[in-house]
Amino acid sequence: MAEIKVERRNSVALVTVHDPDKRNALTLDLSADLADAVADAEHDESVHALVVTGTPPAFCAGANLTALGEAKEAGLRAIYEGFLAVARCKLPTVAAVGGQAVGAGLNLALAADVRFANPKARFDARFLKLGIHPGGGMTWMLQRAVGPQQAAAMTLFGEVLSATAAEQAGLVHRVVDGDHDALVEAAVEFASATADVPRELLITTKRTMRATRSIAAHAEAVSTEVVPQLASLESPEFAARLAAIQARISGSA
C-alpha cells in the first residue's frame, strides 16, 4: 500500500515515502499526504527537525508518469506540493537518500536543508530524457545547490551523480557507509542535534538564513540579523542558559 509513514525519533519526525514497488514515485495522494505530514511536524511543538527518506530500493523515482502525463497546471502544482512543503518547512530538514533520486525525487532531495546519502544513491535530473521540461523549481534549486556549471551538466547533458560525486559537488553533505537503516540512523542522529536548541530560535534562524542568502551586502545582513538577535537576548531561554553558565563559572572559581 502506497503511503507516507511518520515515525517519531525523540525530537525528530522521520517521514518516509513508502511505495517500494513503484520506487516511491509521487502520486497526487502521496504528495498531499507528504505535505500533511510536514504540516503536522511543524504544528507539533515537540518536533525540532524533520528527516525525509524513501523505502528502499529507491529514494524517490520522480512523479508517477501516468499522473504526470494527465496533469494540467493544477495537477502539476498538486504533484509539486509534497516536496514544496519540505522546501517551505520552517523546521530544519534532512533528506536521507538511499537510492535513486530522479526528477521530482531529485526535487524532494533538493528541498531539504541538508542531504545525507549512502553508496546506493544516484542523483538524476532526467526531465529532458523523458521529453519534459524541468518543473517544481528544479533549475533554481539545483543551481543554488551545485552552481550553474554542474547544474547544466546534470540538467542539459544528463549527467547522473553517484553519492561520492554528489558529495564532491556539494550536493550531499555526508555519505554514510552501510545500508538504508544505517543511513537513516545517521540522518536522525544528525538532526537530533537540534533537540537542545529552543524551537523558536531554530525557526527564526532558518527564516533569517533564507533572507540573508539573497543579500549581497554584509551590512544589510547585520541589520537583518540584529532584530531577531535582540529578541533572543531577551528570551527566558537565554536567561536560563546564561544563569546556568554563570553558576558553573562561579562553582569552578
Q: Your description of this structure?
A:
The protein is of the alpha/beta class and 253 residues long. The protein has 2 domains: 3-193, 2-enoyl-CoA Hydratase, Chain A, domain 1 (Alpha-Beta Complex); 199-251, no CATH class. It has 11 helices and 9 strands. The chain has helices spanning 28-43, 65-70, 73-88, 104-111, 138-146, 148-155, 163-169, 180-191, 199-212, 218-233, 236-252; strands at residues 3-9, 12-18, 49-54, 93-97, 100-102, 114-117, 122-124, 161-162, 174-175. The protein has a 6-stranded mixed sheet with strand order 1-2-3-4-6-9, with helices on both faces. Strand 2 (12-18), helix 1 (28-43) and strand 3 form a beta-alpha-beta unit. Helix 9 packs antiparallel against helix 10 (218-233). The relative contact order is 0.12. It comes from Nocardia terrae. Belongs to the enoyl-CoA hydratase/isomerase family. This is Enoyl-CoA hydratase. InterPro entries: ClpP/crotonase-like_dom_sf, Enoyl-CoA_hydra/iso.
The portion of residues assigned to helices is: 40-55%
The global form is globular
Order of helices and strands: EEHEHHEEHEEHHEHEHHHH
**Structure classification:** alpha/beta
Instruction: Give a count of the beta strands, DSSP E runs of length 2 or more.
Output: 9
**Main β-sheet: number of strands, strand sense, barrel status?**
6 strands, mixed
Number of domain units: 2
Given as residue ranges, the uncertain stretches (5+ residues, pLDDT < 50) are none
Mean pLDDT: 95
Strand order of the largest sheet: 1-2-3-4-6-9
- Between the first and last Cα atoms, what is the distance in angstroms? 62 Å
